[in-house]
Amino acid sequence: MLSMLTPSQSIYKGRPVRFSARLKNNGVSDISLTYAVLKVTDPNGKLIKNDSIFVNDIPSGLVNTTDIFWPEPFIPDLPGTYNISLYINADDDEVPGNNNLTLGIVSNPGLKGTYTISAAGGNFKTITEAVNAMYERGVDGPVTFWLSDETYIEGNALLNAPAIDLSSKIVGVGPANPVKFTINPLNATRGSVNIHLHSGSGVGILIGQSYIPGNVNAPVLNVNPGQVKNWANPSGYISFDGGSKKSLKFTLATPSQHRAVFYLGNGASNITIKNCLIEDGINQAASYVCRVPSTVFNATFNRFEYDADNSVDGTFSAGVVIRNLPPRDKALGTNPLNLDTITNHNNVISGNEISKLGYGILALGIGALEDPNNSRYVRYYNKNNSYNDNIINTVSRAGIFTGYEEDGNIVGNRIYAVNGACGNDAGGIILGGDARTLKFGYNNLRMYVSGNEISGIKGYTNIYGIKIEQSFVEFTNLEKTYSFPDEAENMKLINNIIWGFEPELQAVNVIGLALLTERKNANNWANMEFEAKNLNYYTRNDLLSNNTIFLLDDKIVNTGAVLAAAIFNTKNAQIFNNAIAIDDPFINANNPVTAAFFYYGLHPNKGGITTDRN
Fold first, then answer.
1. Are 349 and 318 in contact (CB under 8 A)?
2. Using omega within 30 degrees of 0 as the cis cutoff, is the peptide bond preceding 185 cis?
3. For 303, which of 2, 113, 125, 538 is 20 to 30 Å away at the CA?
C-alpha cells in the first residue's frame, strides 16, 4: 500500500520539491529487491518526470513500513495541477490494486504585487513573516512590501544569527521581478517606521551566498548536494527604500561589539539601500570599533587566508558592510560543494543617513584569487558599486572605507563629525591601506570620488579629509611571482570640498588630501622620513582636479605636519584646478612641514606629476 509523505500540501512554481512516500506491506512475507516508479504530468498533460528508484526491502509483520525518497528534486515551472502517479512493483501480490497511488497537487504562483506588513492587520504581521513567505512561495512578479507600523522588532539577541537572513536564492527574484521593502505612502514622515534588529551576532540584515541559510524555507535546503551551487547564490534585486522623506529607521540591539546593520556578504549584488536612517544602539552604548580585517598569503597551502570579522585581534562596526570572501567551508577550509566565486557588484548605497558606528560604509573585496582553469591569480575585486549622496556622521574612523574595489563611485556624500576614537588614521574617506605585520593592505582601481563635502575630522595621530593609499600586494606561488594592482590605478578625485579639521592633540598631523603608496614604516613626519615599502611601485594615471581644501584655524597650536595636499610615488598624475588655502595663525614655527602642496616621488620631468592652474 502507498501513501505520499512529501509534498504534503500545495507546492509553488519554481520551488524544488522532494518526493517521498511510505510503503506498507500488509502481506505475510517480506518484499525484497524491487522498485518504485514516480511519474509526474504537468497541467498541460505532458509527462515531465518518469523516475524509478530501487527498494531494498519492505518488511512484513509488526513493523511493516518503509519510507522511500527520490533523490532528484522536481521543479514545477507552471501554475496549476500536476498529476502524480506512484507505483510499487510487488510480484505475486494478492491485492495489486493498492500498489498504485494517483493524486493531483496544485502548483501555486509566487508572491506578486503589493503586500502590507502590519501587526494591526496586514498580509503579514512582521518582516520576518513576510521573508518566510517569500522563501517558501518565491515571487512571480515584482513585489513591494509596505511597512505601516511605527515599530518592528525582528530577530533575537540571544541567537548567534542575523536578525533577518536574506541569504541564498529566492525563487523568481531577478531584474524583472525585484523586491522592495518601503514605507506605506500614507505613513511617510521622517523616521516614522523604526525597525529594531535584534541579533546575537551583531548583524542586522544579511544578504549573500549560503548553503546553510538561517531561513528554514530556503530552497537550497531542499536540493541534493550536486545542485546546491545553483541555489546557494543570492538572488539580488532587493531594495530597502525609505522614500523621499527617509521614513525607515534601522537600529541594532546586540551584545556584540561587531556590528553591521546591513551586511552584504559573498556575491551580494544588485542590492539597493537608499533613503534610510541607519544607526547603532537600542538602549546600548554605540560600538566605535574599527579594525579592518586583513589578508595574508599562506605559501604552504598556496592560498590567501582572511581574518574573520570578529576575532581576538579585534572587530569593526559599520552601518553598511560589503565583504566578499572565497566560498570555503569554515571547518574544512575547502569548497566541497563547488560553490561559485562571485564578485559583489552593482550595489547602490544612496541617500542614507548613517551614524554612531566605526564606519558609515565598509566595503572589502576578495583581492587576488587563483583561477584554477588557467592556473593563475586574477582579481576578484568588488565592482561597480555606488556610495552616493549619503550623510555620515558620528563615526569613529571614517565615513567610507573601501579595499579591493574597482570602478566604484563615491559621489555627493556629506561626511562630518568623525571623532577619531579608534585607529591611528581618521578621515572622511579612506581608500586602501591598513597593512599590518606579515599581512597585506588594500588597494583600489578606477574609483571615482567626486562632489563630497568633508569636515569636522578629529583624531589623535593622523587626520585626513580623503586618504588614498595603494598597498602593493606581491607573492610567489609555485615559483611564479604575482603582483597587484596589475594595471594602472586611474583614481579620480574631482570637485570635493574639505575643511574644518579638529585635531585633539598639538602633534596630530593634519592632511587635507593624501594620495600615496604604502610606506615602509608609515610616514614619519617628525623626522621627514617617507621611504616607500616597494621602491619600484607607483600609483599611475591618477587625476586630482577641482577640489577645494581649506585648512583654517583649528584652535590649537599645531606641532605636527599641516598639509592641504600630499602626493607620494605617482606616475603620470595630473593635478589641475584645485583651490587650496591654509589660514591658521597658530601653526608652530618648528613643526615638520606646512605646505599647501607636498610632493615626494619622481621628478615631474620624469613623469611623476603634472600640475597646472592650482
1. no
2. no
3. 538
In 258-272, which positions are buried (b, 16+ CB within 10 angstroms) versus exposed (e)? Answer: bbbbbbbbbbbbbbb
DSSP state of 30: -
Residues near 230 by beta carbon (within 8 Å), at least 6 away in sequence: 169, 223
Amino acid at 327: P
Closest by CA to 237, choosing from 348, 327, 343, 136, is: 348
Reduce the secondary structure of 378-437 to three states and give it as a string.
EEECEECCEEECCEEEEEEEEEEEEECEECCEEECCEEEEECCCCCCEEEEEEECECCEC
Q: Which three cell numbers stand for residue 411?
A: 559621489
Tell whether the model's pLDDT for residue 2 goes beyond 80: no
Set of cell numbers at residue 579: 583651490
Can you give the pLDDT at residue 1? 58
d(CA 89, CA 92): 10
Nearest alpha-carbon partner for 51 in 67, 72, 32, 78: 72
Beta bridge partners, 390, equal none
- Name the burial class of residue 2, with classes exposed (0-12), middle (13-18) and buried (19+) by CB atoms within 10 angstroms of its CB: middle
Backbone phi, psi, residue 190, to 5° = -60, 125
The position carrying cell 593563475 is 376
Where are the alpha helices (H) located in 127-276, listed in sequence order? 127-137, 228-232
Mean pLDDT for all residues in the chain: 94
Amino acid 3: pLDDT:
83
User: What region does 119 belong to: left with phi over 0, alpha with psi -120 to 50, or beta?
Assistant: alpha
In three-state secondary structure terms, 21 is: strand
Distance CA 45, CA 478 (A): 58
In the predicted structure, residue 592 carries a pLDDT above the cut 70: yes
The three cell numbers of residue 392 are: 555620515
Question: Is a pLDDT exceeding 80 seen at residue 352?
Answer: yes
Q: What whole-number distance in Å separates Cα of residue 302 and Cα of residue 333?
A: 13
**Closest to 145 (Cα-Cα) out of 220, 240, 224, 54:** 240
CB 391 within 8 A of CB 418: no
Per-residue pLDDT at 471: 97
Q: What is the DSSP string of 262-312?
A: EEE-TT--SEEEESEEEEE-SSSPPP--B----EEEETTTTEEEE--SSBT
Residue 578 and residue 564 in contact, taking contact as beta carbons nearer than 8 Å = no
N- to C-terminal Cα separation, the chain:
89
Pairing of strands 579-583, 548-552: parallel
pLDDT of residue 56: 87
The answer to whether the predicted template modeling score (pTM) of the entire model surpasses 0.90 is: yes
CA 17 vs. chain centroid, Å, equals 30
- Predicted local distance difference test score (pLDDT) of residue 522: 84
Q: What pairs with residue 594 in β-bridges?
A: 562
The candidate with the shortest Cα–Cα distance to 1, out of 88, 104, 59, is 88
Q: Is the peptide bond before 485 cis (omega within 30 degrees of 0)?
A: yes
Q: What is the pLDDT of residues 262-284, one digit of tens each?
A: 999 999 999 999 999 999 987 89
**Residues in contact with 109: Cβ distance below 8 Å, sequence separation at least 6, in sequence order:** 12, 13, 79, 140
- Alpha helices per DSSP H over 91-161: 127-137
Distance between CA atoms of residues 578 and 580, nearest Å: 6
Q: DSSP class of residue 333?
A: S
In this prediction, residue 98 carries a pLDDT of 77
Q: What are phi and psi of 229, to 5 degrees?
A: -60, -25
Alpha-carbon distance of 354 to 328, in angstroms, equals 32
